[in-house]
């Protein structure tokens, strides 16, 4: 994990305020994503309006994730930010560690989030994401190819309204699966 000072510098350089909790969004482009960016934008606006949290898109793979993040941000009615640089694994851990909550399609974003004890929901596009969510007993906010904004908002609210319980649950699950999680994290960070 990168030193806190470095992470604070990244947020300052990108003009991302840290005065409110941050919800981080890590999405990717995928086949058959009709209307997906618009629905993600609606979900982000819902979170912004209901919880007054800052929305930060995190491009886990640059430049691949930047375009879909920009598209979703463009549909939003409220302000949002995009971290679109290629960060190293320590910086990614520090960045995700600053979040209050994460919504992600990217498996490595979910793994880092678990490691940093940041509660999350996943958007499933691949069986490995679904398997990881089931292993940690965390929720899915739908599937990428048939993403339903209403269903996703309900799942996100269930977690955000009970965030402390989810932090405890996640800590207990990751401790229980410690060796496996550490091995997966090491493997992904090496990649």
Characterization of the model:
It is a single chain. The chain is α/β, with parallel strands linked by helices and 191 residues long. The protein has nine helices and six strands. It has helices at 4-13, 36-51, 64-75, 89-97, 107-115, 127-135, 149-160, 163-176, 178-190; strands at residues 22-26, 54-58, 81-83, 101-104, 120-124, 140-143. Strands 3-2-1-4-5-6 form a six-stranded parallel beta sheet. α5 (107-115) links the parallel β4 (101-104) and β5. The two termini are 16 Å apart.
Layout: helices, strands, pairs:
Layout: H1 4-13, E1 22-26, H2 36-51, E2 54-58, H3 64-75, E3 81-83, H4 89-97, E4 101-104, H5 107-115, E5 120-124, H6 127-135, E6 140-143, H7 149-160, H8 163-176, H9 178-190
Parallel strand pairs: 1-2, 1-4, 2-3, 4-5, 5-6
Helix pairs in contact: 2-3, 2-7, 4-5, 5-9
Descriptors for this entry?
6 strands, 191 residues, alpha/beta, 9 helices, six-stranded parallel beta sheet
Major sheet characteristics: 6 strands, parallel
Beta-strand residue fraction: 5-15%
Task: Give the termini distance in whole angstroms.
Answer: 16 Å
Mean pLDDT: 92
Roughly what percent helix?
40-55%
The rounded Rg comes to 15 Å
Please mark out the parts with pLDDT under 50 across 5 or more consecutive residues, or reply none.
Answer: none
- What topology, given as strand order, has the largest sheet? 3-2-1-4-5-6
Number of helical regions: 9
Number of strands: 6
Q: What structural class results from the helix and strand content? A: alpha/beta
Order of helices and strands: HEHEHEHEHEHEHHH
Shape: globular
